[in-house]
Design goal:
Structural class: mainly alpha
Number of strands: 0
Order of helices and strands: HHH
Strand content: under 5%
Radius of gyration: 14 Å
Oligomer: single chain
Shape: elongated
Largest sheet: none
Distance between the termini: 27 Å
């Protein structure tokens, strides 16, 4: 993903109403956010396996 910053991942400024509306009306949640959260989960699972 190259970044962990929402603004860089989504291209929207989620601290403003305009940015939140831009985010909500786009396919960004499905196309970017869900994938980023999934990737983070797998990374955590892998890290936990390594320490067990």
């Amino acid at each position: 993903m190259e970044t962990i910053k929402c603004r860089e991942l989504t291209g929207a400024d989620l601290s403003t109403e305009e940015g939140r509306e831009q985010y909500r009306s786009s396919d960004t949640p499905q196309a970017v956010c869900f994938l980023a959260v999934g990737a983070a989960c797998w990374l955590v699972v892998d890290l936990l396996k390594e320490t067990s």
